[in-house]
Amino acid sequence: MELSPLQKERYNYAPKLPEMLKHQIAEIEAVEGKATESVSDQEEIKALFPNTYGMKEVTFKKGKSSAKNSTLRVGVILSGGQAPGGHNVITGLYDALKKTNKDNELFGFKNGPSGLLDDDYLVFTDEYIDSYRNTGGFDIIGSGRTKLETEEQFAIAEKVCQKHSINAIVIIGGDDSNTNAAVLAEYFAAHKCGIQVIGCPKTIDGDLKNDVIETSFGFDTATKTYSELIGNIERDANSAKKYWHFVKVMGRSASHIALECALETQPNVCLISEEVESKQMSLSDIADQVASSVVKRSEKGDNFGVVIIPEGLIEFVPEVKSLISELNDLMAIKEKEFTALNTLDEKKAFLNANLTSESYETYSFLPLDIQAQLLMDRDPHGNVQVSRIETEKLIISLVDSKLKRLKKDGKYSGKFSALNHFFGYEGRCAFPSNFDADYCYSLGYNAFMLILNGYTGYLSTIKNLSKSSDNWVAGGIPITKMMNLEQRHGKKKPVIRKALVELDGKPFRYFAQHRDEWSENTRYLYPGAIQYYGPSSVCDITTRTLELEQN
Ligand code: FBP
């Protein structure tokens, strides 16, 4: 296989481990802290996890390991969307496993959780592992979105593990996958089959974080990649001085990615979905906010700018949220009747007859292509696929209408020429930054330490991440500690709480203090490309979000 110069060079990069994991395995001791409680609904969650609730926090330190050195077989699964650093979780896990005992074996279940159910796997070798060190992507074994959540699936998983004498499974995934990891761990514990389950916190979205997870892996590299591109666009805008660029960034519901990119690039406007919801802003309010920046800048002769839009924005706008919810319900009941209609006029008449008048009004107010996108195929749960709605185009069209009205009233005389972009897939498989390469390798290495010491139902955690890696703290947290009960598909379910942007958190407050200045003036920051080699001041920096949260 032909390799790019960077890929060759990255194979030789030695990821940094926390000081406490650098010792001989026999000198790494697991120290137990306090017993844990779930974040809320303690009684109900305790009842749902009788075997794995209330376990103690674990931290590793130099000492004497009490782990038995028997031969171990471990399976690993990548679950959900790609995130830079996934390969390093696996290489860290593999290295710790082989360092402990060269007869230990690592099984990679292919294409996500379905690989475990289908018994579709490979056994890692040195040569295979070496060809994925410090690279982006999940192609080492592939990923998938099958959910491991039913008793039938757990029974198959148990059989497959027993067939290969697998002692433990490591699930690398987001909040849903780690929730399911906890349920699987409880099932195995209840069945006394001795199979351990350990989770690792993955997602570029950054919404798997709480007082024990400082950041999910992949967020650092993905936001640096988008910020490089946004910075380049800002410089282009400031050079040509003729376009307004509207950039939508991935992140599903939460706006962590948009906020981090705004902190790194200082655009003229960045919308934050959580703020839109909290202030109950309508589409018209949002358009006013952007148009105000356009007008002020045009008064200075600056008919250009950059706007960042989070992927999930539309679902946080109250009137659209109601419309989407009504559409989902309507399609669930009358989908056949609806799909039999041929023309847009027929469809509109159907919607007029079946939606509330407020929702129909919202629907009619939207541009035609957005109207059509709202009626596209549903996801497997029957919901509108919000990520396919071109919110960036919707905002452009709303702002354009506002500006036309202002022009008519003599309140605006500038030029508004807008371009749209969507950055998502561009960042999910980038070569992991040094931070993600080190963090992920440590998470994988540490996951094996948890297995070796007999833990199950734990999440591998590395903390103190805004400090240098020597000072990172490795350990484990019972997954049940992060759980609460939430309504899912009509039922109360134990889940890990998704972290949205906190409006009283330091990153948002910093942004809110500076955005008026950025809105009117050109204060762009150009972060440039991720640096893998060179001074630590550019190679080892974490995100602005983490820096603001921790310092
Ligand atoms: P995970 O939550 O599984 O990490 O995936 C995150 C994400 O990248 C979102 O930002 C985005 O909305 C979604 O995946 C896209 O999913 P898909 O890869 O299925 O198109």
Automatic annotation (TrEMBL):
The keyword Metal-binding applies. Its cofactor is Mg(2+). Non-allosteric. Its main location: cytoplasm. Mg(2+) binds at D175. Residues 73-326 form the Phosphofructokinase domain. The active site is at D205 (proton acceptor). Catalyzes the phosphorylation of D-fructose 6-phosphate, the first committing step of glycolysis. Uses inorganic phosphate (PPi) as phosphoryl donor instead of ATP like common ATP-dependent phosphofructokinases (ATP-PFKs), which renders the reaction reversible, and can thus function both in glycolysis and gluconeogenesis. Consistently, PPi-PFK can replace the enzymes of both the forward (ATP-PFK) and reverse (fructose-bisphosphatase (FBPase)) reactions. Homodimer. This is Pyrophosphate--fructose 6-phosphate 1-phosphotransferase.
